[in-house]
Design a protein that fits this description.
2 domains, alpha+beta, 42% helix, three-stranded antiparallel β-sheet, globular, 6 helices, Enolase-like, domain 1, single chain, 5 strands
Length: 220
């Protein structure tokens, strides 16, 4: 959306932006090191913008060219995680304030047309999300979307074990059943499990929790 805009957001919009973020919108994802971070999905962010600004009160546009950079990304085991990535600048315009811009990124998982299409669209969505984050908590600005990987210390492993139990509890599974599930899954007890086993368990639990949350939202 382009064109002239007012000089100040309406009071009702500012009131909505000042409210706490609905925790039901928050998703969780685990990195390969087992660290879990919170984020908002693209459709949730767009729904937030429509709810707060109005369907005719905001818009987004790509600024400049969508750029592809061939840059293979592999983990420490040599497994290829991506063959390159797209970047694009997105500008969001909201009636009542100056435009907000940011750069989105989308990684290409494999050298196929489908993977390139998904990554290019993902870069635009990421740019919209990042631009809207400048409006504050309602768009996930306070969520920790990036965490540096720390050394795998005994304390760090204890944190990962506690995370397994916390996610299981949120799924309605008690500690005894969680310990039995993990031992069946990796052949080690929760207290014996290392980084790889705990990381895999955290990813599996976070994925299941996200699926349940999505099903609840669709049924609501």
């Amino acid at each position: 959306m382009t064109g002239a805009h007012d000089t100040r957001l309406p009071q009702e919009v500012r009131d909505l932006l000042a409210q706490p973020l609905d925790t039901a919108l928050i998703q969780e994802r685990s990195n390969r090191d087992g660290r879990v971070f919170a984020y908002l999905e693209g459709p949730a962010v767009i729904s937030q913008a429509n709810r707060i600004f109005g369907f005719d009160g905001w818009g987004a546009e790509v600024v400049g060219d969508l750029k592809y950079i061939a840059s293979p990304l592999a983990n420490s085991d040599g497994e290829v995680l991506a063959v390159g990535f797209y970047t694009v600048t997105v500008r969001v315009t909201v009636v009542g304030c100056p435009p907000k811009s940011d750069v989105g990124c989308g990684f290409v998982s494999e050298p196929t047309p489908e993977a390139h299409e998904i990554a290019s669209k993902g870069a635009v969505t990421d740019g919209i999300k990042r631009a809207l984050r400048q409006f504050g908590e309602q768009f996930g600005n306070n969520l920790n979307e990036r965490r540096e990987r720390g050394p795998i210390t005994p304390e760090r492993l204890d944190e990962m074990r506690a995370r397994v139990l916390t996610l299981s509890s949120r799924l309605g599974v008690d500690e005894a059943r969680t310990r039995a599930w993990l031992q069946d899954r990796c052949g080690q007890t929760l207290d014996e499990a290392g980084e790889r086993e705990l990381s895999g368990a955290i990813r599996a639990l976070a994925d299941e929790l996200n699926q349940r949350n999505n099903q609840r939202r669709r049924a609501a």
